[in-house]
Amino acid sequence: MIPHQFFYLMVVLGLLWIFFMLHMTWPSPCPATPQRPAEPILPRRTHSSEPQSFAGLTHKPQCVACEQALSAPAVTAPAAPPPRITSTRGRKRQVDTSTHFCPNPDCAYRGWVAWGNLRANGHPNGGPWRQLLCVACRRYFLETLGTLLHGKRASVELIVRVMACLAEGLCIRGTARVFEVDPNTVLQWLVEAADQLRAFSQHFLHDVRVQQVQLDELFALLSAVKDGTPQWVWVALDPESKLLLAIDVGDRTLAMAQRVVHHVAQVLAPDCAPLFLTDGFREYMTALLTHYGQWVQPPRRQDKGPHPKPRWMPLPQLLYAQVGKTVRRRRLVRVSHRVVFGTLEAVNAVLAPLGCQINTAFIERLNLALRQHVAAIGRRVATLCKGEDGLRQQLALFQTYHNFCLPHTSLREPLPRPLPTNGTGSAKHWRPCTPAMAAGLTDHVWTLREVLLYRVPPWLQPAGV
Length: 465
Prior knowledge:
alpha+beta; 31% helix; 17% strand
């Protein structure tokens, strides 16, 4: 049996051992370190909300359309036109040939409209179309040469009504069923008409002067695109005259924006730099800066050293504003405005006479008209085009029909006095007006028959010759 004294001694030694180990392992207090002076808390750096001026670019952005236009030879009128021919024999001519020209490439009067060298020569073989004679080269040709109606066995009324149905939004197969013709025939007529209508629009849409231009892109689908990649219909509109300046199909990229702005610049007068209004798509800024910019030498910041590099800057008269839209859960929650080039005062000065503010409402309304009149881009329809070429053909028909044949209600003009109607209805108080008439490009409402029968000359006729 262990004595109590030995037991107590062992307990005391154990406690001493524990105290010793705690003393060795316990962290000792650190020596006092000199305290550093407290650094002042700087305020958080914030960005200025004031708009910064555009610093310019060190190189001019590239535009493929501009390079192609420079490389392609332009068709211009000969420097010395031939002398006019005035008939002094016989009675006055009854058939008007002032809208025709000689198509013979070897004739000196080729392409010259209303030069007095054409004579009507009756209807060969009892046909519906008149034959014309050029007295300079003694060549004969029909008055429908170079148009959709040349060499067609179908009646003129049938072809015109088919084109009218396509222009009003009926699909190709639906139009074929209505007029009991083959769908391939309707498609072939549309392909031929599209080439003529593009030349028709290009002949009239030049040197246009506008105050503002709205640009937008419309979502479209093509049935031949298997991966579901969307295509976009690019549109440029003059909101004052409702004139459709340019329309094209392509991806939503910088190259496509450059192409559309290049087309608009070709339609407008060389010295015309209107106010441009778009959505928040950032590539528009680069495209507008490419076609409406100039080299500017910035001033030196120091007395010594090299001069700074020239900067590609927008023209002083260029105005450009964007409309930003915030959408949440398919609902528009906020609309913001941003002036990119120019000042807000200059932009409001352009918009004040029209009684409106920075907006894209007019071109959004045109998007609705596009979906109603072009069957290929309607919503939830089974009439989609397979490729871009088919969609471009329908858009070419819509552009000409919208600008020259379709009167706009907001553009109508009051008559000096009411005109009575042939029936028992009320008198007419308004003169119908199309966008082309409002823009000063024509003086009457064109019918689709007149458009399809119009022979587009190979070059613009010089004024005052």
